[in-house]
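Running log. JK asked me to keep both predictions on one page so they can be read side by side. First protein, sequence followed by its C-alpha cells:
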Amino acid sequence: VSQAIDCLTSWQMSHQNVQQLVVKTGEFIQARSTHESRYEGVIPKKKVPYLYLEGDGVKINGQKKQSLEVHRFQVCEGSQKVGNRSEMIAPHFVSHLNRQKAYKEMMAYLQAYYDLRHTVVISNSDGGSGYEKAVFDELALGCLRHEHFRDRYHVHRKIKERMAFVPQLQHRMIRAIEHYNWQEVQLVLDTSESLIEEKEAEDFEHLRLLHHYLQRSWPYLKSLKARGIKDPKACIGTIESTHR
C-alpha cells in the first residue's frame, strides 16, 4: 500500500503510517458495529418458518509462529439457486477474536431482526468448546423449535482419521451414519477391531475414541428428513466454506 501511494499519488506514506491507519480504522468500525444503538428501530421483526444458524472457530497463522483464533457465527433463511451455484438467503455473519463477544453480537442481531415464536431454528456445529448445543439453545431463545446437528464435514474427517488403518470400511461407516443405523455402526467398529494386528495397540485406542465420539454425537446425526423437516431451501453445513 505504501509503495502504491508513492507511485500513484503526489503523497508519500510510510508503511508505519499505513499500519496506524489500519488500526485506527479497525477500532472505529468495531465501535460502530457494536454500539448499543445499531439495532434501534428495526421493526417490524421478520417472521420466517426456518432459520439456519452455525458457529465455528478458525485459526489463522500470524507472524513469529503465532496464531489467532477467529470466532464466527452465521445465520441465513435458507439457500436458493443462482445460475449453477447455491446462494444463502439473507445471510448475516459475525466474527470476533473474542468468542463471547461474537456470541453476544449474534444474539443481539437475532433478537432485533426476527420474531422467533413461529420459527424452527436449525443449528449446526462441530461441538467444540464454545459451540455446544447449549450455546445454540440460548441463541434460539423463544423459537418454536430448535434442532441441533453435528457438522457432517467434521464427522467424516473424524471417521477417516480414526479408521485410517481400514480405509475399505470408512465409506461403510459413513453410510451407516447417513442411515442413522447404530447397529450397523457397531458392526463396522467390531469388523474394524477384528482386522487390527496384535502389535497395533494404537489402532484399538483410535476405535475406542471414535466409538465414544459417535455415542456423544449420535442425537445430532439424525437427518433433516428423519426429524420431519422438509424445507426445500435447507442450508446446513456451509460455515467451513464461508471461512474464506
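And the second, directly underneath as requested:
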Amino acid sequence: MSDVKEFFDEHGFYHARGLFQPDEVAALERDFDGIVRQLTASGEVVDATWDGGETDKIAAKGDVILHTHNVQKYSRTWLNAFLNPRFLDVAEAILGEDIILHHSKLFQKPSENGSPFPMHQDWPYFPTLQDSMIAGIIHVSEATDQMGCLRVYPGSHKLGRIEGANGRQQNDVLDQYPIADATPVECAPGDVVFFHYFTLHGSMPNRADKTRKTVLCQLYDGRDAVEPGCPHPDERMVLRGWNHTISRTAAGQAA
C-alpha cells in the first residue's frame, strides 16, 4: 500500500478501482434506493443544491440533488461498507492505523437535472486540529463526466487552507482554478475516490440520462480531533484502531 500513500501525498487524491465487488455493489445500491424512497416520502427538505453565485454560474433552473447525512443510521449494509477491510486498508494507507468516521452523506444526482457543486475545499465545514481529514466517495453507479462526476485539481492540497474556499462565494484563489479546467475522475460502480479536504474539487451538473449515486464518508486520524466549536455533526465512530482524543464528555454528546 506504499504506492497508495505516495500517490495520495503527491496528488491529494487516490482512485481505488473495483474496491467493492459486484454483489456488494448490488446490495449497497438496493439500500441506497431504499434510503432515497424513505427520504422522498418523508416530506423533509432533501435537496442539497447550494445557493450562491458560484452555483448559479454552472447550474440550471430546476436542478436538484437528493441528500442525507449518515447512511449508517438507515442501513446496516452501509455500515458494513465502511467496515469493509478493503476500504479500510486503503484508508489506513493514507491516514494510519486509527480511522475515525466523522460523518457520511448520500448524494443522488438525478438524470438530466442533477445539481453541480462549484470548486471548493471541504475544510471550512469541519476543520480538524491536524488537518488529517479525508473523504472517500463510494460509487454505486457509474459516474461519467456527463453525469457530473468528481473533478479535482491534482496537487492543490499543497495550497493548504484557502480562506473563503467553501464554494458558495467568489474567491480570488478559486478564480485561478475554474471547474471547467479541473480533472474529471470518472468511476465505475464499486470504485472509491479518496481525497484530502484541502484538495480543490467540485462537480458539474448531471445532464446524462442516468442517475449518479454516491455515498461520501469523511474520515480522520484517531490522533486528530475536530476544532472546538465546529457545529457540524461528528459521529466519532472508530472504524479501525483507537480514538486517542475522545473524552467521557465527548463520547456522551449527541452527534
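Observation for JK regarding the second prediction: The domain at 2-251 is CATH 2.60.120.620 (Jelly Rolls).
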